[in-house]
Design goal:
2 helices, 23% helix, disordered N terminus
Length: 91
């Protein structure tokens, strides 16, 4: 799922609801990558409030999972850690 230009949690939460049909307040972590591949947004609700994390790589692109069906892909916490460090976690 691509990113829109808005940088606030309400627009990303809307993408979760409309694009994925999921509840952004359910405690899941939702990750989105920008079109160029160098920006990632992570949205989660911890039961108290909504958090939005942004990271842009100075060089290179995030290694992103492939979804053959166009739907959301689940990855482990370890895979997310590698992804955020720019490490190829697919091997």
């Amino acid at each position: 799922m691509g990113l829109k230009s808005q940088l606030d949690e309400s627009s990303v939460a809307g993408q979760v609801q409309e694009g994925l049909g999921r509840d952004p307040h359910a405690g899941e972590i939702f990750c989105f990558r920008g079109r160029k591949g160098d920006l990632v947004k992570i949205l989660w609700h911890d039961g108290v409030g909504m958090s939005l994390y942004l990271k842009r790589l100075e060089a290179g692109k995030f290694i992103w999972p492939v979804s053959r069906s166009g739907e959301a892909v689940q990855i482990s916490a370890a895979q997310l850690g590698y992804l955020l460090e720019g490490i190829d976690w697919r091997n």
